[in-house]
UniProtKB/TrEMBL annotation:
Signal peptide location: 1-21
CDD domains: LT-like
Protein name: Murein transglycosylase
InterPro entries: Lysozyme-like_dom_sf, Transglyc_AS, Transglycosylase_SLT_dom_1
Organism: Actibacterium pelagium
A matching Pfam family: SLT
Family label: Belongs to the virb1 family. Belongs to the transglycosylase Slt family.
Listed GO biological process terms: peptidoglycan metabolic process
Occurrences of domain Transglycosylase SLT (ranges): 156-250
Family matches, as Gene3D superfamilies: 1.10.530.10
Molecular-function annotations in GO: peptidoglycan lytic transglycosylase activity
Length: 290
């Protein structure tokens, strides 16, 4: 075969083209490979007067299985190394907090408030000291919540400033997806509404998932407007009350609240991985993968 190919190349070097016989010989010398589905099929022409025509339909092939959702949390475009250097005037951690280090990188003060600092807040999670990392929920756990409550969340967030992914994160931390959960302080349901908050936003049965979600979203939407969409202050107020945030001039120095905010942010970073379009802000829309 190599000899025949060399002969043809020699002939072509003089400006000549190989003859039909040469091409036929070369075809016979080369190995024949048949690919599945490429076999030639003979189709007979229709008989004279026949009305049916030959129709050729090409069926589009799809993968046997759709690609699974990504099962990991992707860091944001903000470099976590930017948060390694602690400001000289950073406040000391509140006694009793597990994640007090977080507030050395993210200011709890209202004066530092601004709508777009979600990326910084997420990037700071990756600056945790060794052994003090904030673990978010498993992706499959959030997927289970989506399967159970995703439709209710999407309905409740339409026309609001609240991302469905943020609601999912709050549910994860507040109740672990248990609609009948009751705290020792009396908070009830998926989003752990206090009785006064439930009445305030028209929730009659806090243990009803759809009602509870509607009330929780309404409260978050109210806080988004009150605190100019700053995710840090909104989450702090959801946990401690807007009055406590206003009186403290920022995130109150409550150990529970100081740990609550970064835990919800870690859950948000997981939950948004289930959105068809990954949200960047706590106000961005989200359609969940099913």
């Amino acid at each position: 075969m190599r000899y025949l190919a060399n002969v043809i190349l020699f002939v072509m070097s003089f400006g000549l083209t190989p003859s039909v016989a040469q091409e036929s010989a070369l075809d016979e010398a080369l190995p024949q490979v048949n690919y599945p589905g490429s076999e030639a099929k003979r189709v007979k022409p229709p008989t004279p007067g026949a009305k049916k025509r030959i129709m050729v339909q090409i069926t589009e092939r799809y993968p046997a299985f759709p690609p699974p959702p990504v099962d990991y949390v992707q860091p944001t475009s903000v470099n976590p190394d930017d948060f390694r250097q602690v400001e000289p005037n950073a406040p000391k951690p509140v006694e009793g907090t597990r994640y007090g280090w977080y507030w050395r990188f993210i200011s709890p003060e209202i004066a530092a408030s601004r709508p777009g600092r979600m990326q910084e807040a997420i990037a700071a999670l990756y600056a945790a000291p060794e052994g003090q990392e904030i673990s978010g929920p498993r992706l499959q756990t959030i997927q289970n919540y989506v399967n159970a409550y995703g439709s209710d969340i999407l309905r409740a967030t339409v026309g609001t400033r609240v991302s469905p992914a943020l609601v999912m994160a709050v549910i994860s931390v507040e109740s672990a997806g248990v609609p009948t959960a009751v705290s020792h302080k009396g908070a009830q349901g998926l989003m752990q509404l206090m009785p006064a908050t439930a009445r305030r936003f028209g929730v009659k049965d806090a243990r009803n998932p759809a009602e509870n979600i509607r009330g929780g979203v309404a409260y978050l939407d109210f806080l988004m407007e009150l605190f100019d969409r700053d995710p840090i202050l909104v989450l702090a107020a959801y946990n401690a009350g807007e009055g406590a945030v206003q009186r403290s001039g920022g995130v109150p120095r409550y150990a529970e609240t100081r740990d609550y905010v970064p835990k919800v942010l870690a859950a948000w970073d997981v939950a948004r991985g289930l959105c068809l379009t990954r949200p960047e802000l706590a106000t961005d829309g989200c359609v969940f993968r099913r």
